[in-house]
Amino acid sequence: MIKKLIILIPFFFLSFLVKGQDADAVTFEIQLSKPKLGLNERLRVDFTMNKDGDNFNPPDFNGFRVLMGPSQSISSSWINGVRSYSKTYSYTLAPTAKGKFTIEQATIIIAGKTYKSLPKEVEVTAAVDKPSDQMTAEDVADENLHLVAEVSKTNPYLNEAISVVYKLYVSPNISVSNYQPLDNPTYNNFWSQDIKVSRLTAQNGTYQGKPYRYVVLKRVVLYPQKTGKLEIEPLSLDVTVDVPTSRRDFFGGRIYSQTNKTVSAGNRVINVKSLPTTNQPVNFTGAVGEFDFSVNTTKTELNATESLQATVEVSGKGNLKLFKLPEPELPSSLEVYEPEFTEDVRTNLSGMQGKVSNSYTIVPSFRGKYPIPSISFSFFNPKTERYETLNSDEIIINVLEGPNNSGSLSNSAIGQTNKQQVVTTGSQFNFIKLSPNLTNMGTSYFFGSTRYYLWLLLPLLLIPLAIILRKKRDAIAEDVVGNKIKRANKLARKYLSAARKELGNKDAFYIALERALHNYLKAKLKIETSEFSKDKISQLLNKKGIEETTIYEFIGLLQNCEAARYSPFSNVEMQRDYDKASEVISLMDKQL
C-alpha cells in the first residue's frame, strides 16, 4: 500500500502543475451569433479574452456594414477561491450583399504579447421573411419612429382648400434628441401657404392603435390649381434616436444606444375633381368657397364735382386671393377712376378667411340722378356642390347742384352754323414791309481770331481729362464683383421695365416680374435664387437682416407670380403688384 502511494504522489503533483498552467494560459477567440443569415438579418460578432489587454485592433468587416460597436463588457467572479475573468468586444453587423464572407483575424496585446483570433466564414443568403436575430438600435427605431403626413381631404374640388399636417410619432420606448430636415416638398400645381408652428410641443396620441407621443413639425394649406391626380412630395428628416439597451451602468441606470434614422412621410396622391360645367354661370371667375357679396357707396346725394366711393366687396371663406372681383357698370356721364384693391385675409388650417374689395372713386359732372345697376357674383360651394349667385341692390346717385348736361341738344341746333361776310378795304396786306433797312455787317476772318486760338489749345486741355477718365475706367474694370453687381442691377431694372411694358398681358407681365425679383436677389446676395424654394429665400433674407414684413411682401409677390399661371388677374392687380415690387425693392435696398 505504501509503495502504491509513493508511485501516485508524482502523478498528483503533475496534475496540479497542469491545472496551474491552464489557469495562466491566455485565450483570445471570436464568436459569431450564427454562421448563416439572411440579407435582412443582423450578425453579432464577439471577440472574447480571459485576460485584460490593450490595443485591440478589429478586422476589416468586408461584405458587412457596422451598425453598432465596439461595445465592451467585462465579467469577473471568484468560485471556490478561483478567479474567473472575461472581457468581450462586440459588434453588430448588417450584410451588404449575398455570398460567403470571411471575418478576418483581430489582434490584441496581452502582457506584452500579441494574440490573434482565428478567421471564421459566414454565409449570407437571400432576405428572409422574419429575421430571428436580436434587434439592433436601428431596428428598434424603425418600429418606434414614424413621420406621417395627415391630409384633410384627398379628393377636393379645383381651388378647394386642403391642409397637410406633418407629425412625428415617437414611441415611449425610445427618445429623440435631435432632428434635421433633409428634403422639403415643393407642392407643384398647388397654391401653398405655410402655417407657422410657433413652438414644438409633445402631445399624447395613438398610432396604429398603440400609445405614442407626437410633435407637429409643419403645417401647410394647399389650393389645387389643376385637376387630376396630383402628387405631394414627401418630407424627409434625419433623426437622432436614443434606444435603451438591456445593459445598466454602475449606478443601475439604463444604458442607451444612439443611432441616426432617416424617416419620410411618403408620397401622397390627391385626386382633384374638376368643377361641374352644368349650370355654370356665365360670370363665374373661379371663386370656390362660401361667400357674401355687397356693393356700397359712401353717399347717395352730393353736388357736382364732389366725389364718392363705391366699394365692391366679397367676404367669407374660400380662395379669396385666386379669383377676379366683378366690375360695376356705371353711366358714361360719371367720371370713374381706377379702383383701389384692398384685402384683409388670414390663412389657417381650414383655408383663407376674410374679405377682398375694390374701391372706385366716382365724380359726377352734371346735375341729375344716376343709377348704379345691380351686379352679380357667382361662386361654387363645395359643401353643397352647387353654384350660387348673389346680386347687389341697385343704387341711385342723386346729384343735387351742378350744370345741366348739354349733351341733349337737338341735331338742328348742333347743325346750325353762323356765317359772316368778308369786306375788303384795300389795306389787307399793310403788314408787309417793303423797305427792310438792311445794314452792312462787315467782313471777319477766322484765322488769327480768338476762336482760332481756343480751338488750337483745346487738344492740350483734353489730355489731362483723358488721363483721369482712363484711370477711372481701369479702376471700374478691375472691380469684377462690382461690375457683376452693376450688370445684375441693370438686368433687374431691365426686367422690371419689361414688366411695366407688359401691363395688361397677364402671362408676360408676371414672367418678367418674377425674373426681375430673382435678378435683384442675384445682384444683392450673389447667388442663383431661382433655384431656391420660397422657404430658403426667406431664410437667406432673414440672415441678411431684412425685416419680416418686407420678407413677407417679397415672398407674396413670388406667390402671385406663380398663382398667375393658373388664375385670372385683373389689370388693377397687375398694377398693384408692379407698384408693390418697386416699393419692396426700395425697402430691401435700404435695409441691406
TrEMBL record:
Coiled coil: none annotated. It comes from the Bacteria. Residues 1-20 form the signal peptide. Keywords: Membrane, Signal, Transmembrane, Transmembrane helix. The chain crosses the membrane at residues 452-469. Pfam families: BatD. This is Protein BatD.
